[in-house]
């Protein structure tokens, strides 16, 4: 390609996969817009970079989540931006509260939330699926995890959209700056009150677990708890919203899969795994090089911002047979959609659980979904998915 690809261009946001394929073929390591990022697009190179934090530092995330116009952002102090040894300390502490048992015992509540939301979807009536189901399902789960005020769930969409859009907001987008700054202040004010209340009066919830957990006598500070709560709102909410939205969009595009899954509900989990590969929620994570390094014959300079393109890696034909074909019978495990190496997503089991249960409930009530308008895509270097998904569910 003679000109730099702009990953934020509307036509690329709508369908980035042909662009990714061309980059893998002709320029697997190259600079792209916005900002002259270096992009790695092949699975092998992306996986190697994830596993080499000594050269590809996670501090790169901070360059996209705390630009100069924003300044303070607790998300940018979370463990996702840290390298060893600080990363391991925080991950160990948080993992004490974020256990598989804590996630698995949520399934009955997730199913109850999904059933309530599905009952509100009227057959043969148009609805924005993101607003009506994909967003409130994980928002309700987060509220359950943290024992938050249920009336707050309506705010989560704005919070998650604003925070995830920081990476796609330029210096020139001044109309967005104040809105995002206000969101950060509002979240921090509300969550600070929650943390203080749990320290005074612990409950049976994850915030209480976070503030009381100890490893070798060491606890999380208020700032560290806050950064994790911000991280969960973005990573735990936004990525699950997109996973559920992508799943239903693919069922609209391939209606024969609805019939198959309704007949064999036990295969919904397999379907979700292929959605994660074919339409991953996370398309790129940014790293910063600590020294000049060579990848695929190209020298990336020290201090360069490097985008590890997960969305491209998951369509790499060197790794996956017929990568542009949706095949839920595909064998093998692909965890790339949740990151790789030391930063593999702690919330992956919860995201998979929410998507599986949500789809099981939807497929038990509806026989097909038909689109009623164009998809409106979000603007983020990190997460790609619909802001709105208009459709009609059919009983």
Automatic annotation (TrEMBL):
Pfam families in the cross-refs: p450
Superkingdom of this protein's organism: Bacteria
Signal peptide: none
Keywords, in A-Z order: Heme, Iron, Metal-binding, Monooxygenase, Oxidoreductase
InterPro entries given in the database record: Cyt_P450, Cyt_P450_B, Cyt_P450_CS, Cyt_P450_sf
CDD domains in the cross-refs: CYP130-like
MF terms (GO), sorted A to Z: heme binding; iron ion binding; monooxygenase activity; oxidoreductase activity, acting on paired donors, with incorporation or reduction of molecular oxygen
Family: Belongs to the cytochrome P450 family.
PANTHER family hit by this protein: CYTOCHROME P450 YJIB-RELATED, P450, PUTATIVE (EUROFUNG)-RELATED
Name of protein: Cytochrome P450
Species assigned in the record: Corallococcus exercitus
């Amino acid at each position: 390609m003679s000109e730099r690809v702009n990953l934020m261009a509307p036509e690329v946001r709508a369908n980035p996969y042909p662009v990714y394929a061309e980059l893998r073929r002709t320029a697997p390591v190259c600079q792209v817009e916005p900002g002259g990022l270096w992009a790695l697009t092949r699975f092998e190179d992306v996986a190697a970079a994830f596993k080499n934090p000594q050269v590809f530092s996670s501090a790169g995330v901070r360059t996209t989540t705390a630009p100069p116009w924003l300044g303070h952002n607790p998300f940018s102090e979370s463990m996702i931006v840290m390298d060893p040894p600080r990363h391991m300390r925080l991950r160990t502490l948080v993992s004490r509260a974020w256990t598989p048992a804590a996630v698995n015992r949520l399934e009955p509540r997730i199913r109850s939330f999904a059933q309530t939301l599905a009952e509100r979807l009227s057959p043969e009536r148009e609805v924005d699926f993101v607003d009506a189901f994909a967003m409130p399902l994980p928002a309700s789960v987060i509220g359950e995890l943290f024992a938050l005020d249920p009336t707050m769930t309506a705010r989560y969409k704005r919070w998650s959209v604003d925070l995830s859009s920081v990476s796609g907001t330029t210096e020139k987008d001044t109309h967005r700056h104040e809105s995002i700054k206000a969101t950060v202040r509002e979240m921090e004010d509300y969550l600070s009150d929650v943390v203080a209340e749990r320290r005074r009066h612990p409950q049976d919830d994850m915030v209480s677990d976070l503030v009381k957990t100890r490893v070798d006598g060491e606890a999380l500070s208020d700032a560290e708890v806050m950064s994790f709560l911000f991280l969960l709102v973005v990573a735990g909410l936004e990525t699950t919203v997109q996973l559920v939205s992508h799943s239903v969009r693919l069922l609209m595009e391939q209606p024969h899969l609805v019939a198959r899954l309704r007949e064999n509900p036990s295969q919904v989990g397999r379907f979700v795994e292929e959605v994660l590969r074919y339409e991953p929620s996370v398309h790129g994570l940014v790293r910063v090089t600590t020294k000049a390094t060579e990848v695929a014959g190209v020298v990336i300079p020290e201090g360069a911002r490097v985008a590890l393109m997960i969305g491209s890696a998951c369509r790499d034909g060197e790794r996956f047979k017929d990568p542009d074909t949706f095949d839920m019978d595909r064998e093998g495990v692909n965890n790339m959609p949740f990151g790789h190496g030391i930063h593999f997503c702690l919330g992956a089991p919860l995201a998979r659980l929410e998507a599986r249960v949500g789809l099981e409930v939807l497929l038990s009530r509806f026989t097909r979904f038909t689109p009623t308008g164009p998809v409106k895509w979000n603007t983020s270097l990190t997460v790609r998915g619909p802001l709105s998904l208009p459709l009609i569910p059919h009983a």
